[in-house]
Design brief:
Number of domains of chain A: 2
Helix content of chain A: 25-40%
Number of strands of chain A: 9
Largest sheet of chain B: 6 strands, parallel
Number of helices of chain B: 25
CATH architecture of the largest domain in chain A: 2-Layer Sandwich
Distance between the termini of chain B: 41 Å
CATH superfamily of the largest domain in chain A: ACT domain
CATH topology of the largest domain in chain A: Alpha-Beta Plaits
Bound molecules: thiamine diphosphate, magnesium ion
Largest sheet of chain A: 5 strands, antiparallel
Order of helices and strands of chain A: HEHEEHEEHEEHEE
Strand content of chain B: 15-25%
Number of strands of chain B: 22
Oligomer: heterodimer
Strand content of chain A: 35-45%
Radius of gyration of chain B: 25 Å
CATH class of the largest domain in chain A: Alpha Beta
Structural class of chain A: alpha+beta
Chain lengths: 189, 610
């Protein structure tokens, strides 16, 4: 078989959807029903005037499966637009994590020192714990969490990846922005 | 996320023209404005306001089926024989769950359906109320789209949008779940908006093909040495003119044409360029030509596993053009060289136009050699069978062939159930036009044919409608005999009665060592008496000599008929691509070992494909 058909790639996909009941279930059901992977999924309303939400999904699959995923998403009725951030030029990815570390003594000081290096902010503290807030790439957060786990009991809450393309191009602009009147929203095929 | 913070910004469903009325009245008015003539349904508590409105206004004709599953199949038969959207009305809970098989069937075969389901009142949703089911949850994976209408002010928009979504792009079933309080509530009716194709806020499927791709396709077809057209249900869905254009296109190019089970009728079966259906029970020449071609032009079909056989051996040396209205069909199973997104009819029309403009020279010599090769395959006469006359038992193939020959000049529609009889019908019945043939292709739903015939007969009261059935499948939805009796529908049920779930028996014979586990049709009713007790006529043919007479009696009778055609019990359906085999490794008959090695030697992966 052609190696292209078997190599597993990781893609970050941005999806603009109508914020209506069931839309998230529809997207998730598509992934589970067709056996696609979800590494992370984030969603929130991004345009209250037009009632639009943006979903960011990190998924893995062969190039053929990734193409399928995008085509299947695009044909859902409440989906406005699908963008593969991984293939459409360079993009930014960030996660937000809240990391609670429960420890005492020397480990506490070490935890603070490392947090400083990672630009994690302490946003809550007791005599036996810290909660750090940190944003960054998935890899950076993973590394920080690993270090904290060596220094105490750890509890983590993460958002999953949000992503956006670099540069001035507006792939999925807000309706209120200056360009919206010109029907910038790309027609689905 | 789950709840919009303000009324939906659905700006695209309607144009304003204020008229206040109840939700139930909005539903009726919307059906009328959508041009709906018939609704197939079954009442219950959660749809009483709608049935009351129906009673008062008589706005649409209601056909009372005998089970909700029958309603959806009937609507499918109606839709497929007319090209219109089929409409269903059922109650909440069990009414909705009974409809699920039909909805899945319509999704798999891309049939436009709007199904209205009753729901408990909005304040009861989620409380396990009487006859509550999570209908939108249950039907989400088996519909093209679904809606739960919680605010009567959204109702008119949703109704109109549902018809638009069901019929446009790749068609499919749409469910609208209607809580009872919304049916009572007063709201504003709005008329359907024009131009949803261009104005809908998020669903605007592309139908016009890209011109450059069309020209490229035409060039590829012209210079091909061994081209073939592979057409499917997408051509039928694109309307009768699409079949005409496709036929014209195939004729100007001179290439052979094969059709899928769903596509039969898109090209005249009597045309010399037609090499028959392809796939698991397709003709030898069709599958061999698909394997040997150097250019495959797929229009409105989807490289389904019943077509391709073992994927890695599927037509390895051909350039593939794939025309589909649904971009997700492209490269799903088979990688193609030239994808064209668009409506099959528009694409065929554009290709034809481009062909006439470019006037390409085709490689006549190579194509003649290709036809010689095809004629060689045709000479195998893969559909041959032997039928002795007189008191001899009836071969099922012969029964279909005679049925076809006797009714072919009448205005007729054919539906089927699922099994061997279905495949024999596809092989031996010839279809010259689209919309005449209705069978459950993607889901393979036993019990489809009888209600589908009811729907087709409602749409075409003067035409001959025949359900080619198996004795086992018939029993799955035979309650619809009651519907036939009520509306005096002269549907003819032509049962190939082999006393077996023949298709399953065949697989057991082929790959399970003849261990016929639970496939004998024990305890069958007397079909003649059964017909009579539902007010119809019962007929039986037991040997070859009486077959024609029984068929003639069947079609001459003005009312419903069940014809119990006793056929040879252990006949198997050939040709056959055994599961896991390549599409050129067909078994042509019971003695055939197949070119791919001894029968029964299917790979484990192949067996799992069954
Ligand atoms: C609802 C449903 N259940 C089970 C099957 C599996 N199945 C496929 S064909 C078949 C036997 C059909 O028997 P019959 O209607 O007598 O047709 P025959 O094959 O004998 O012509 C069965 C059980 C199916 N397709 N649909
Ligand atoms: Mg049978």
């Amino acid at each position: 078989m052609n190696p292209k058909e078997t190599t597993i790639e990781r893609h970050v996909i941005g999806i603009l959807v109508s914020n209506e009941p069931g839309v998230l279930a529809r997207v998730i059901g598509l992934f589970s029903g067709r056996g696609y992977n979800i590494e992370s999924l984030t969603v929130s309303e991004v345009d209250d005037r037009e009632n639009l939400s943006r979903i960011t999904i990190v998924t893995t699959g062969t190039p053929m499966v990734i193409e399928q995923i995008k085509a299947q998403l695009a044909r859902l009725v409440p989906v406005y637009d699908v963008h593969d951030l991984t293939t459409e030029g360079s993009h930014l990815e960030r996660e937000l994590a809240l990391i609670k570390v429960a420890n005492t003594g020397e480990d506490r000081i070490e935890a603070l020192r490392i947090a400083d290096m990672f630009r994690a902010r302490a946003i809550d503290s007791t005599l036996e714990s810290f909660i750090f807030e940190m944003t960054g790439s998935t890899r950076k957060i993973d590394a920080f969490v690993d270090l904290m786990a060596a220094l105490g009991g750890v509890e983590v809450s993460r958002t999953g990846v949000v992503g956006i393309a670099r540069g001035s191009r507006l792939d999925m602009p807000m309706s209120r922005s200056k360009v919206a009147g010109k029907k910038t929203r790309k027609r689905k095929i | 996320m789950a709840q919009p913070k303000k009324p939906s910004a659905r700006k695209s469903g309607t144009k304003p023209a204020a008229q206040r009325m109840s939700g139930a009245a909005i539903i009726m008015k919307a059906l009328q404005d959508q041009g709906v003539e018939v609704v197939f349904g079954y009442p219950g508590g959660a749809v009483l306001p709608i049935y009351d409105e129906l009673f008062k206004t008589n706005a649409v004709r209601h056909i009372l089926v005998r089970q909700e599953g029958g309603a959806v199949h009937a609507a499918e038969g109606y839709a497929r024989s007319t090209g219109k959207v089929g409409v269903v009305l059922v109650t909440s809970g069990p009414g909705a769950t009974n409809a699920v098989t039909g909805l899945t069937d319509a999704l798999m075969d891309s049939i436009p359906i709007v199904c209205l389901t009753g729901q408990v009142a909005t304040h009861l949703i989620g409380n396990d109320a009487f006859q509550e089911a999570d209908t939108t949850g249950i039907t989400r994976p088996c519909t093209k789209h679904n809606y739960l209408v919680k605010d009567v002010e959204d109702l008119a928009d949703v109704m109109h949008e549902a018809f638009y979504v069901a019929a446009n792009g790749r068609p499919g079933p749409v469910v609208i779940d209607l809580p009872k309080d919304v049916q009572f509530a007063e709201g504003t009716y709005k008329e359907p908006a024009e131009n949803l194709e261009t104005e809908h806020s998020s669903y605007r499927p592309r139908t016009e093909p890209d011109a450059a791709s069309i020209e490229e396709a035409v060039r590829l077809i012209a210079k091909a040495k061994r081209p073939i057209f592979y057409g499917g249900g997408g051509i039928i869905n694109a309307g009768p003119d699409a079949s005409k254009k496709f036929t014209e296109l195939a004729r100007v190019t001179g290439a052979p044409v094969t059709l899928t089970l769903m596509g039969l009728g898109a090209f005249p079966a009597s045309d010399k360029q037609f090499v028959g259906m392809l796939g698991m029970h397709g003709t030898y020449e069709a599958n061999m030509a698909m394997h040997g071609c150097d250019l495959m032009v797929c229009l409105g079909a989807r490289f389904d596993d019943r077509i391709t056989g073992r994927l890695d051996a599927f037509s390895p040396d051909s350039t593939k053009i794939h025309v589909d209205i649904d971009p997700s069909s492209i490269n799903k199973n088979v990688a193609v060289d030239l994808p064209i997104i668009g409506d099959a009819g528009k694409v065929a029309t554009a290709m034809l136009k481009s062909w006439r403009k470019l006037k390409p020279r085709r490689d006549k010599k190579a194509q003649d050699a290709w036809w010689d090769q095809i004629e060689g395959w045709r000479k195998r006469d893969c559909l041959a069978y032997s039928q002795t006359k007189g008191k001899q038992p009836i071969k099922p193939q012969h029964a279909i062939k005679r049925l076809y020959e006797i009714i072919k000049d009448k205005d007729h529609y054919v539906t089927t159930e699922v099994g061997q009889h279905q495949m024999w019908a596809a092989q031996y019945f010839q279809f010259e036009e689209p919309n005449r043939w209705m069978t459950s292709g993607g889901l393979g739903t036993m019990g489809y044919g009888l209600p589908a015939a009811v729907g087709a007969q409602i749409a075409h009261p003067e035409s001959l409608v025949v359900d080619i059935s198996g004795e086992a499948s018939f029993l799955m939805n035979m309650q619809e005999l009651g519907t036939m009796a009520q509306y005096r529908l002269p549907v003819k049920v032509f049962i190939l009665n082999n006393e077996w779930m023949g298709m399953v028996r065949q697989w057991q014979e082929l790959i399970h060592g003849g261990r016929y586990s639970e496939t004998y049709s024990e305890g069958l009713p007397d079909f003649v008496k059964l017909a009579e007790c539902f007010g119809g006529k019962g007929l039986r043919a037991e040997h070859a000599g009486e077959l024609d007479d029984i068929i003639n009696q069947m079609i001459d009778h003005p009312g419903p008929v069940i014809a119990d055609i006793r056929v040879v019990k252990d006949e198997s359906c050939y040709p056959m691509i055994p599961s896991g085999a390549a599409h050129y490794e067909m078994l042509l008959g019971p003695e055939d070992e197949g070119s791919g090695g001894p029968r029964g030697a299917a790979s484990a992966a192949g067996l799992a494909l069954v």
